[in-house]
Amino acid sequence: MNTRLDKLSGGRFLVIGRAGMDLYADPPGTRMEEATHFTAALGGSSANIAVALCRHGLQAGLLTRVSADAVGRFCLTQLARYGVETRHVSIEGGEARNSLAMVETRINDCQSVIYRNGAADFQMTVSDVEAVDFKAFDAVITTGTVLAAEPSRCATFHAFDLARAAGLPLIFDIDYRPYSWASGAEAAEVYSRAAGYCDVIIGNDVEFGFMAGAYDMGLAKARNLAHDEGRLVVYKMGEGGAISFLGQQEIRTGIYAVDALKPTGAGDAFMGGFVAALSKGLPLPEAVLAGSACAAIVVTRVGCAPAMPDPAELAAFLRDHPGPTLP
Hints:
Layout: E1 12-16, E2 20-26, E3 37-43, H1 45-55, E4 59-67, H2 70-81, E5 89-92, E6 100-103, E7 112-115, H3 126-130, E8 139-143, H4 152-165, E9 170-173, H5 184-197, E10 200-204, H6 205-212, H7 218-227, E11 232-236, E12 242-246, E13 249-253, H8 266-279, H9 284-298, H10 311-320
Parallel strand pairs: 1-4, 1-8, 2-6, 4-5, 8-9, 9-10, 10-11
Antiparallel strand pairs: 2-3, 6-7, 11-12, 12-13
């Protein structure tokens, strides 16, 4: 395995990207247009991953910006409640606003409406990055949404440079959200550039296909990225499980079937569980299955950040579940 990944055992992670507020139509099963009550929770892919890491007993700090209003303060309060370090979360004034998600807890025809106009997290700057002591961390994790606009994009690539100079592994969740980008072509070019920096790349079949220029070329894209400099690449296929590539190795794993309440939060939970397992020295197949189990748990619960399991809940799930599907 890439020798930089040995640093994961230190357990200190810097996560780059957005924190937001999620509003869930309540009670579960309610369609948004029929709802009269909503439940608030911390959201945003990077914040969810940071929470997941903390729930697994690791240390996580978030690097981003939040709006100078009640929603931004809500995010800061919730991050602190979950144990996420917020010293590198800056306040953005003016007209910038935090991302807001209106979501249903439904598995069929689940609606999710995301408001990202003038997003505060896109205002992260090079100065924000340079205020970070990268030697205080053991790895950097980022999601693709942070690269969708400037100045956040330039700041993130600067963070990549500083992290590599400090010898830290870079972990990249593709997390493609078309509504955040000016064009698909721009996104594909930027994602490919980001992938060139990273030691671990995680995405689903649609995202790798998007990067490759066609869905049926996504698997080859993932394989080629792994063969280049011995990267670890996880190609997720939903109910089809995952294929993990490490250099020339290809490992297929299944999923843990559950009766899901909703589809959201699975990717963030997978990242948290997978990275936590790697940090504890588990072999790659077991780490992927740990991530898959965490994803299965989260889709059976309301919310994303509040649904992340801790080690005891993960152990109980693995003990009681009949086991993963055959790959």
